[in-house]
Specification:
15 helices; about 450 residues; 8-stranded parallel barrel; FMN; oxidoreductase; 3-stranded antiparallel sheet; alpha/beta; 2 domains; flavoprotein; TIM Barrel; NtaA/DmoA family FMN-dependent monooxygenase; globular
Length: about 450
């Protein structure tokens, strides 16, 4: 008996705080005007996507002591944008990244519970930590936490927020015979949490929301991040680009679920993916090559190289060879607020690998940066892209994908109009929404249907 086809999950990432967007494209629009967000969200909902995702930028990035102006500078407040989008969409999930390092559980829980009410049960929270003191300078506590402490705080933050979400579960309506009115049990909303990170006692003032609590996303790829996702998340982002790497990651994370009393269907794995469509595969390859050159200008290539070398490389020709000097040791002082800096834990080894590749393939600085920064992409005709996406999902390399277009806000339109119908014809993607909440779209159970969901979230 053949294995039944898995249903594909699709979502859309409104790109920001990066150089994904091709600004030279005449169709490129604003990243702050609401009309851009509304167009993007309506396209995603028209295509019956599960959700829209917004990243968070808490400080403008700097390089060499100046604002880094080669990518999107800034991001409107996530809750404001998602709340506004709730009014112009009906079924699309609304996912936002909110930091656990500099926020407080009560405030975040209240905001997400409110968004879940306003949207009719479509809210999701991507729980992240902050890694750098540079961002921390914007906040009262300042500084930053070592990796193990960041995850310890994140775990307790989520446990605390979950307690707040669940504080309205149960309780009774009490009739006051003397006045003829009905009062809610005073215990509802009461919470007490005492731990290493938080010590709070009070009463949560937002009633139980349609989803019980928002869907929880997590984006870490380290061992700590994978364990955090297995214990506490409903979905995890992945950045693994190949079929084999995707299958290895998928198997690893899914196998961790059992020790937290969870089943495979309680965690969805959704890699981010770019895409380029053409009438033919050959045309798409040509477009893709040009897109990558537009995303990585000469100036961008030099700035990116400085993340690794930790030196001012402005005198180097981006169309010339890599520097023959080694990266400067110690803390990176060139790029501040750049996530890519932390990806290069051994700059000397990275420099050696890049020199070897550049020499073997005769690559310039710019060509090397283009080659090394290419993420998982679906390139081809609509039929080719539909087939490739389906192959990844059916092979358990992913449960679906979060698509990142290179044009905003209209870059999702062609995918919605050409690729989605092909997936629907194959019977692997919905033709209509079957539920009203994001949990419905992702195939996740309501927390109230679980025996004791808070136990799963306390696991460490």
């Amino acid at each position: 008996m053949s294995k039944p086809l898995k249903q594909i999950h699709l979502a859309a990432h409104f790109p920001g705080v990066n150089n994904t967007t091709v600004w030279s494209e005449p169709r490129a629009g604003s990243h702050i005007e609401f009309s851009s967000f509304a167009h993007f969200a309506r396209t995603a909902e028209r295509a019956k996507f599960d959700f829209l995702f917004l990243a968070e930028g808490l400080r403008l990035r700097e390089q060499g002591g100046q604002i880094y102006d080669l990518d999107v500078v800034g991001r409107p407040d996530i809750f404001t944008v998602l709340s506004a989008l709730a009014a112009v969409t009906e079924r699309l999930g609304l996912t936002g990244t909110i930091n656990s390092t500099f926020n407080e559980p009560y405030e975040v829980a209240r905001q997400f519970a409110s968004l879940d009410h306003l949207s009719g049960g479509r809210a999701a929270w991507n729980v992240v930590t902050s890694w750098d003191a540079f961002t921390g300078e914007n906040f009262r506590r300042g500084g930053f936490l070592p990796q193990e402490q960041r995850y310890a705080r994140a775990k307790e933050f989520l446990v605390t927020a979950t307690g707040l979400f669940d504080s309205w579960r149960g309780g009774e309506i009490i009739a006051d015979q003397a006045t003829g009115t009905f009062l809610r049990d005073a215990r509802v909303g009461a919470f007490v949490h005492s731990g290493e990170q938080f010590d709070i006692t009070g009463q949560f003032n937002v009633p139980r929301s349609p989803q019980g609590r928002p869907v929880i996303f997590q984006a870490g790829d380290s061992d700590e991040g994978r364990e955090f996702a297995a214990s506490s998340a409903d979905a995890i982002f992945s950045r693994h680009a190949t079929l084999d790497a995707g299958r290895d990651f998928y198997a690893d994370v899914k196998e961790r679920l059992a020790r937290y009393g969870r089943t495979h269907d309680q965690l969805q794995i959704l890699p981010a993916a770019t895409f380029v469509l053409g009438e033919t595969d050959a045309e798409a390859q040509e477009i893709s090559h040009e897109v990558r050159r537009q995303q990585v200008s000469g100036a961008t290539a030099i700035k990116y190289l400085e993340h690794v070398w930790n030196r001012d490389l402005s005198a180097y020709d981006p169309d010339g060879p890599l520097p023959d000097i080694d990266p400067a040791p110690g803390e990176n002082t060139i790029a501040r607020g750049r996530a890519s800096v932390r990806m290069f834990r051994d700059p000397l080894a990275t420099a050696r690998q890049w020199r070897e590749r550049a020499a073997a393939e005769k690559l310039s600085i710019r060509e090397l940066v283009i080659a090394t920064t290419a993420r998982q992409s679906f390139i081809g005709s609509p039929a080719t892209v539909a087939d490739t996406i389906n192959t990844f999902v059916q092979a358990d390399a992913a449960d679906g994908f979060i698509l990142v277009p290179h044009i905003t806000p209209g870059g999702l339109d062609k995918f919605a109009d050409t690729v989605v119908p092909l997936l629907q014809e194959r019977g692997v993607f919905r033709t209509e929404y079957e539920g009203t909440t994001l949990r419905d779209h992702l195939g996740l159970r309501h927390p109230d249907a679980e025996a004791d969901p808070s136990d799963q979230r306390v696991a460490s």
